[in-house]
Amino acid sequence: MVRENPGSPIGEAYRKIATNIEFANIDNNIKTIMCTSSMPGEGKTTTICNIAGVLIDLGKKVLLLDMDLRKPAVHKCFKLSNRVGLTDVLINKDDFRGYLNSVYKGLDVIASGRIPSNPSEVINSKAIKELIKKMSSNYDYVLIDAPPVSVVSDPITIATYMDAVLLVVAYSETDGETARKAADSLRYINANIIGTVFNKVPVRKKSKYYYSYY
Ligand SMILES: Nc1ncnc2c1ncn2[C@@H]1O[C@H](COP(=O)(O)OP(=O)(O)OP(=O)(O)O)[C@@H](O)[C@H]1O
Ligand SMILES: [Mg+2]
After folding, report:
1. What is the structure's pLDDT at 214?
2. Dist CA 6 CA 101 (whole Å)
3. 50 domain-assigned
4. Structural domain span for residue 124
5. Beta partners for 32?
6. Global pTM?
7. In whole angstroms, what is the distance from residue 159 CA to residue 35 CA?
8. CA of 44 to the centre of ligand 2 (A)
9. Residue 170 · residue 41 · CB < 8 Å
10. Is position 131 within any domain?
11. What is the CATH number of the domain that holds 108?
């Protein structure tokens, strides 16, 4: 969306998030960032794909990785196939570079690949942790799409080996208590929550969100 409508207020909102990530990373110690939420459908995939799309405008080299191995969707945002991807890299012990989809200059995407029967074990494997370490030495940012916290433990597991976490909260769908519980379970494992994306806020043309720039 941000690539097709760069000048839109929505594009501006995502650019602001990307800039804030850069401010949170002044010391350059954040390379891997996972996006999650408390509930399904809050906008995790939409958010992380669009953030990837604006970070490249800041001159960053970005890898976007689909680690929602239960309901993968990153490939759909970029009209890619997920027939092969992350799970194949792991199973075949292949070089990840053979699975990159170069969607824009500076932005590579790796789809989920085949959905495994044991996603939790894959997510918690030594192999995936080593793979992500290798990936992060080749990019400025490795962005990771994950499932929601309230449904499975995968995002909590992933957060244990991430530099940072972004929490998406759908304004009109998720109550504060549910969002707080998700944040608490991430904090419990010492996840570095660098910010919350307040999503699906109804926007009227005269609202302060619409003209967020001013
Ligand atoms: N800011 C927004 N405004 C309006 N609709 C949105 C916004 N963000 C996401 N959506 C819509 O909400 C739906 C869910 O979005 P998305 O797939 O990104 O959520 P998700 O959290 O990744 O879901 P899942 O838990 O299934 O992985 C989609 O139809 C998407 O287009
Ligand atoms: Mg999703």
Report:
1. 42
2. 22
3. yes
4. 9-199
5. 142
6. 0.95
7. 9
8. 5
9. yes
10. yes
11. 3.40.50.300
Q: Which of 37, 45, 173 to mutate to test the pocket of ligand 1 (most atoms within 8 A of CB)?
A: 45
Question: Which residue bears the tokens 């490939």?
Answer: 75
Residue labelled with tokens 């012990």: 93
Q: Quick check: is 213 in a domain?
A: no
Quickly count: other Cβ atoms within 10 Å of residue 203's Cβ: 15
Cα angle 81, 83, 98 (rounded to 5 degrees) comes to: 85
Domain annotation covers residue 210: no
pLDDT at 203: 76
Residue 202 confidence (pLDDT):
85
Instruction: List the structure tokens of 62.
Output: 């970005």
Q: How many CA atoms lie within 13 A of 200 on its CB side?
A: 13
Strands 101-104 and 164-170 turn out to be: unpaired
Query: What integer pLDDT is reported at residue 79 of this predicted model?
Result: 97
Residues lower than pLDDT 70 in the chain: 205-214
Overall domain count for the chain: 1
Separation of alpha carbons 48 and 10, rounded Å: 14
Ligand nearest to the CA of 44: 1
Strand residue runs (E) in the chain: 32-37, 62-66, 101-104, 107-110, 141-145, 164-170, 193-199
**Cβ pair 146, 139 in contact under 8 A:** no
Are the beta carbons of 171 and 42 closer than 8 angstroms?
Answer: no
Which residues form the pocket of ligand 1, taking CB atoms under 6 Å from any ligand atom? 37, 40-46, 68, 71, 73, 148, 199-200
